[in-house]
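R.M. (postdoc): so does anyone remember the format we settled on? I'll just put the structure tokens first.
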């Protein structure tokens, strides 16, 4: 085994960060399956770019955390900034998906307003940072929670539209159902995590690593697995 990979695995085990390799494996699975089955469609390409971007950022984060000599506060500042950027990419990808799935014109107008509002919130918060790691952490948490609150809205509308129309088609064979359910679960579990994470870190809560695993890494991993299931349906992702 490559010495760097072995070192990374040992650090994960020693620090109890089992959620990180689980998430990485699930992300690779989603990336491969998307490449094989869904990359030919426009929405498939968008999901491929999103997963690839998140994966590359994660790999670079691992390098900074475990192999780089850069000071820790700079490393964590970069990680929190990259998390905020991923959040921005994420909401754009999910909204692009929902614009193609939802039928209500008024809901789509509301989504445009929410996306613009998110942009202002993102820009405003990033300008408030004071170049300290804890400031970036706090801002990243607010941005992440805001994203998921805004994503919950189209998720709920999707379920309302889905169950208001009678159909004999099996839900488990519909890619959109798997995608929305993964997003919904990930959002509901992660919103409280984003809101309290900075407080827990500031007060040096002893179980923050375990909390991160159950409220971030595991839900994020499940989201990637649900995306993989959607790609395996071998249908248009908007169905």
């Amino acid at each position: 085994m490559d010495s760097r990979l072995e070192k990374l695995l040992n650090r994960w085990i020693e620090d109890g960060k089992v959620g990180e390799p689980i998430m990485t494996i699930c992300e690779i699975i989603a990336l491969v399956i998307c490449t094989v089955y869904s990359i030919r469609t426009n929405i498939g390409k968008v999901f491929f770019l999103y997963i690839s971007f998140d994966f590359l950022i994660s790999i670079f984060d691992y390098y900074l955390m475990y192999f780089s000599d850069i000071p820790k506060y700079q490393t964590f500042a970069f990680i929190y900034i990259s998390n905020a950027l991923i959040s921005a990419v994420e909401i754009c990808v999910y909204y692009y998906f929902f614009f193609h799935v939802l039928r209500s014109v008024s809901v789509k107008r509301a989504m445009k307003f929410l996306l613009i509002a998110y942009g202002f919130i993102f820009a405003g918060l990033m300008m408030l940072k004071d170049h300290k790691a804890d400031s970036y952490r706090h801002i990243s948490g607010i941005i992440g929670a805001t994203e998921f609150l805004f994503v919950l809205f189209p998720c709920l509308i999707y379920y309302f539209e889905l169950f208001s129309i009678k159909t004999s088609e099996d839900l488990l064979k519909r890619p959109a159902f798997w995608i929305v359910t993964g997003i919904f679960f990930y959002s509901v579990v992660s919103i409280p995590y984003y809101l309290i994470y900075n407080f827990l870190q500031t007060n040096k809560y002893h179980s923050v690593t375990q909390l991160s695993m159950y409220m971030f890494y595991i839900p994020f991993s499940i989201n990637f697995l649900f995306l993989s299931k959607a790609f395996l349906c071998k249908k248009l992702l908007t169905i």
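R.M.: ...and that's the designed sequence above, right after the tokens. Also worth knowing: The helical segments are 3-15, 19-37, 42-66, 72-101, 105-127, 133-164, 175-202, 208-232. The chain is about 80% helix and 0% strand.
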